[in-house]
Write a structure and sequence with these properties.
It is built from no helices and 7 strands. By secondary structure, the protein is mainly β. A hairpin with a 3-residue loop joins strand 5 and strand 6.
Length: 95
């Protein structure tokens, strides 16, 4: 959806939803502390990942004349046990 806000200033908005499906594999890592005395055992960390995520995004781009743009927005991934939320702000000056 594009809309003219005033002379030389236009706005384009967007939104989206979707899904992401992953293999659901667990990730494990075995490590030890540097400089630990002999005989100290290693340890393991296991990270479990959900298999299905709902994805969301929304944002706006402002076109200021022919030379510059400003873009900002939100993105998110949500699953049963995890969520990720973020945002961004980008600017460009064409020359």
């Amino acid at each position: 959806m594009e809309r003219s806000l005033r002379d030389n200033l236009n706005m384009r908005a967007y939104a989206g939803v979707g899904a992401a499906i992953y293999s659901g594999e667990d990730y494990d890592m075995t490590a030890s502390f540097a400089g630990a005395p002999n005989g100290i055992p290693t340890f393991s960390v296991i990270a479990q990942q959900d298999t299905f995520y709902a994805t969301f995004k929304a944002g706006t781009t402002l076109f200021m004349g022919d030379r510059s743009t400003l873009k900002f927005g939100y993105y998110g991934n949500v699953s049963r046990d995890e969520s990720l939320h973020g945002g961004f702000l980008k600017g460009a000056l064409n020359f």
